[in-house]
Design brief:
The complex is a heterodimer of chains A (about 140) and B (about 200).
Chain A (H helix, E strand, L loop, with lengths): L1 H8 L3 H16 E12 L19 H8 L4 E4 L4 E17 L2 E17 L5 E6 L19
Antiparallel strand pairs in A: 1-3, 2-3, 3-4, 4-5
Chain B lengths: L1 H11 E11 L17 H8 L4 E5 L2 E18 L16 E20 L4 E21 L29 H5 L32
Antiparallel strand pairs in B: 1-3, 2-3, 3-4, 4-5
The chains are: A alpha+beta (about 140), B mainly beta (about 200).
Chain lengths: ~140, ~200
């Protein structure tokens, strides 16, 4: 504190201290990072307009029609599983000269549907981690003839 | 002077870096009301939601839930070539970095019979030492030094048809594949060249 106070009392010291204070962040703060990527199927199961599925009633065809093809279709012998998965990766960080940090978080929005041998819904579940559902925009057909 | 010393320190040191990677949401050990030969898969789904991966077994199925948090700590040094009397200016913009990584992991395996009743379950939580590394980098570069790719693999559910384009030995061994949901499960980070993977002749 004494050193900084001393600079401000010398002739021209104020300007020097100010320029040092301006240069310091520029030297120390080299940059920051923010990145986001997503993959997997569209998480239609989070669509609030989607009709509720009923255990013991809803069929494979109805689920496939409502949600589209699953990420994985698993044959468990006497059961069939539709497994839907959407992955989101978020990265945030900053690069200083003396200290750098980067934090990547990969999260998943999942839904799983179990069907019995006759193709009727036996049980289903969604992950606690949820991503906001964004309806797909219509394809741009303005340039099409 | 304090400011000048701080500035000097900033110029002379390459700095420390902390790289974090978290995959999936953390979960807790199974509630005490999970009982072998009593609890069914409906109860498990209601408690935990969809598993990270699922596989068919002879006369049943298995669920695997996983959570992974990797931390890599790095320390870097750079040198003032002029102060050292060296005529290598590039040293001023180069740092020598050492990194050490570990992963805090949780895994829950549940095995069900053909009726969907729990026959075995095991929860484990542990810290994995992922190793160390050394690198020469640009002063302002922040990148992983320790190779943690083995525990960062993306779930195969997102690979779609890409799984069919794997190398020939892997495709020929697909009957034994632990990635396709029909022949068992595998924890992230399991070595690639052994066990069920031996015939795939993976090089990494």
């Amino acid at each position: 504190m004494r050193a900084i106070a001393g600079w401000t009392t010398r002739p021209g010291g104020g300007a020097r201290a100010t320029s040092l204070l301006l240069i310091l962040p520029a030297l120390l703060l080299a940059g920051c990072i923010s990145e986001r990527s997503e993959s997997g199927v569209l998480n239609t199961w989070r669509d609030s307009a989607l009709a509720a599925f009923e255990v013991g009633k809803t069929t494979q065809a109805e689920v496939a029609r409502a949600l589209g093809p699953p990420s994985q279709l698993i044959n468990l012998g006497n059961r069939v599983v539709f497994y839907y998965l959407r992955e989101r990766s978020r990265s945030r960080g900053f690069i200083l000269i003396v200290y750098n940090e980067n934090d990547v978080r990969v999260s998943y929005d999942r839904a799983i549907y179990f069907f019995d041998e006759s193709g009727v819904l036996e049980d289903y579940a969604m992950s606690r981690e949820a991503m906001e559902y964004v309806p797909p925009s219509a394809p741009d057909t303005s340039s099409a003839e | 002077m304090l400011l000048l010393h701080t500035l000097l320190f900033a110029m002379l040191t390459g700095g420390c870096s902390v790289l974090d990677l978290e995959i999936d949401a953390p979960f807790h050990a199974p509630a005490e009301d999970f009982h072998e030969n009593l609890t069914d898969y409906h109860t498990v789904l209601a408690a935990y939601g969809p598993p990270s991966s699922i596989s068919a077994l002879n006369g049943g199925a298995a669920f695997l839930y996983e959570h992974l948090a990797i931390r890599e700590n790095q320390i870097g040094f750079s040198f003032d070539s002029e102060r050292l009397g060296l005529d290598y200016k590039f040293l001023d913009w180069t740092k020598f970095a050492y990194g050490k990584a570990y992963a805090d992991r949780e895994a829950l395996l549940l095995v069900f019979n053909a009726d969907g009743v729990l026959t075995a379950e095991r929860f484990v939580s542990w810290r994995d030492d992922l190793g160390t590394g050394f690198a020469v980098q640009m002063l302002v570069e922040v990148a992983e030094i320790v190779d943690t790719s083995s525990v960062q693999e993306h779930w195969d559910a997102n690979m779609w048809g890409a799984a069919l384009l794997r190398s020939t030995p892997e495709v020929l061994n697909s009957g034994q594949s632990l990635d396709l949901g029909q022949a068992g499960l595998e924890l992230r980070g399991a070595p690639d060249g052994v066990g069920q993977h031996t015939l795939e002749m993976r090089s990494d």
